[in-house]
């Protein structure tokens, strides 16, 4: 069973992509999705967030929501808005945002490779979110949200993708409302498809960047439909929808923290505790850390630059040396008393796309007592954790730009 393979993509009909493309289902809440889909009957949010078409207050995990997703998908297909390709193809996908460009491939990836850890993980999953994705897949009989994967350095694949985009016109070239440009090329040459599949087959592993719940759900659906028999290498359910970019092109932004209180300390007493482990330097404005082990802190209307004593950074532990771990283990846990950031409601997380002004706003409003800016996790750190079979702390990575839902879906035959 090959690591990746081509598939018959379900895509917007020519000229309809701008009407269809939508942000990923998990970056919007229901009300935000409802507002974005207003006046856009063909937005893919009607499939990925179907509760927007039901009465306000509807439980997003109710049977009616999944039934609505299936109804909306059928409507888009029957109306000719979504069309399935006639043969199994691969697709080149390019994202452009603020001068950043990354070019990868859309394929389906092997569930068996995922189950055997050739497609490596770095996060725990939550049963309720896995269940939601399983029910969504079963309802629409398709995988509509791609898993974001990274491939290790492979100049041959990079060159093949670049050559294809130079020689062909994109089937989709759309600038979304957030300014991100989404371009998609269809790779329909059997020889090129075979070369790409073989090149990926030579790779030791792929790495999940985002989409742990989607890949876990695909594995569960495959197991359920397989039953007691062996995996069928030709079964569509033995593969899951994936967008795979070269790791060296992917961009991770900072994932910052805000905490509701100072654990009973005054600001001055809190600063004194922080100085026991960090050097603390007042800053004239927002602090964007420039290297690992450096942090920004916004407290009582002032920014500070924190630097952790290098002797406290464990170089041989791929998880403990992450900046999110260093802040947790040296400050958030021992000083602020938050031992489990997955469940403690005193802490919240702010993606770097929102900027440091969001940290200031939440602290200045009185909602939070202190904010921390972090140096972004690096792709090599993520891959090292995955290689070690370890798990990253919660909210370690914020990938930008985001993939679009509705660009290509994988129908389960």
Instruction: Profile the largest sheet.
Output: 9 strands, mixed
User: Care to count the β-strands?
Assistant: 21
> On the 0-100 scale, what is the average pLDDT?
96
The overall number of domains is 2
Q: Radius of gyration from the CA trace?
A: 22 Å
Percent of sequence in beta strands: 15-25%
Helical percentage? 25-40%
Protein structure class: alpha+beta
Tally the helices: 13
Q: Can you describe this structure?
A:
A hairpin with a 5-residue loop joins strand 9 and strand 10 (about 180-185). Helix 4 packs parallel to helix 6 (about 125-140). Strands 1, 4, 5, 6, 8, 9, 10, 11 and 12 form a nine-stranded mixed β-sheet that branches. The protein has a six-stranded antiparallel β-sheet with strand order 15-17-16-19-14-18, sandwiched between helices. A four-stranded antiparallel β-sheet has the order 3-2-21-7. It has helices at about 15-20, 30-35, 45-50, 65-80, 110-115, 125-140, 155-165, 190-200, 210-225, 265-275, 325-330, 355-365, 380-385, and strands at about 5, 10, 80-85, 90-95, 100-110, 120, 140-145, 145-150, 170-175, 180-185, 205-210, 240-245, 250-255, 255-260, 280-285, 295-300, 300-310, 345-350, 370-375, 400, 410. With about 425 residues, it is an alpha+beta fold. It folds into two domains: about 5-250 and about 400-410, no CATH class; about 255-375, Conserved hypothetical protein from pyrococcus furiosus pfu- 392566-001, domain 2. Helix content is about 30%, strand content about 25%. It is built from 13 helices and 21 strands. The mean pLDDT is about 95.
């Amino acid at each position: 069973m090959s690591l990746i393979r081509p598939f018959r993509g379900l895509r917007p009909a020519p000229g309809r992509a701008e009407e269809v493309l939508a942000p990923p289902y998990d970056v919007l809440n229901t009300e935000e999705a409802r507002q974005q889909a207003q006046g856009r009957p063909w937005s893919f949010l009607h499939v990925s967030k179907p509760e927007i078409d039901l009465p306000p207050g509807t439980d997003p995990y109710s049977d009616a929501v999944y039934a609505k997703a299936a109804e909306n998908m059928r409507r888009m297909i029957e109306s000719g808005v979504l069309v399935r390709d006639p043969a199994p193809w691969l697709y080149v996908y390019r994202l452009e945002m603020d001068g950043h460009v990354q070019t990868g491939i859309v394929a389906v990836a092997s569930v068996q490779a995922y189950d055997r850890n050739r497609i490596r993980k770095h996060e725990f999953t939550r049963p309720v979110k896995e269940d939601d994705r399983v029910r969504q897949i079963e309802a629409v009989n398709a995988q509509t949200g791609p898993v974001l994967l990274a491939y290790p350095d492979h100049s041959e694949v990079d060159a093949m993708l670049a050559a294809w985009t130079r020689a062909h016109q994109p089937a989709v070239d759309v600038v979304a409302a957030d300014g991100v440009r989404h371009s998609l090329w269809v790779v329909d040459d059997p020889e090129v498809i075979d070369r790409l599949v073989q090149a990926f087959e030579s790779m030791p592993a792929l790495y999940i960047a985002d989409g742990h719940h989607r890949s876990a759900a695909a594995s569960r659906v495959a197991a359920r439909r397989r039953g007691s028999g062996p995996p069928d290498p030709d079964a569509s359910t033995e593969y899951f929808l994936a967008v795979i970019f070269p790791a060296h092109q992917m961009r991770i932004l900072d994932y910052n923290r805000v905490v509701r209180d100072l654990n009973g300390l005054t600001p001055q007493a809190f600063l004194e505790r922080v100085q026991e482990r960090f050097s603390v330097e007042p800053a004239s404005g927002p602090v964007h850390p420039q290297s690992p082990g450096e942090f920004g802190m916004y407290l009582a209307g002032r920014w500070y630059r924190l630097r952790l004593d290098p002797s406290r950074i464990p170089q041989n532990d791929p998880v403990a040396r992450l900046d999110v771990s260093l802040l947790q283990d040296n400050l958030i846990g021992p000083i602020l008393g938050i031992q489990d950031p997955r469940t403690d409601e005193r802490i919240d997380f702010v993606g770097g796309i929102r900027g440091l002004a969001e940290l200031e706003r939440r602290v200045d409003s009185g909602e939070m007592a202190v904010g921390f800016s972090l140096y972004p996790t690096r792709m090599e750190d993520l891959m090292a954790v995955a290689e070690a079979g370890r798990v990253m702390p919660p909210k370690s990575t914020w990938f930008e730009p985001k993939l679009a839902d509705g660009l290509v879906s994988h129908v389960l035959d």
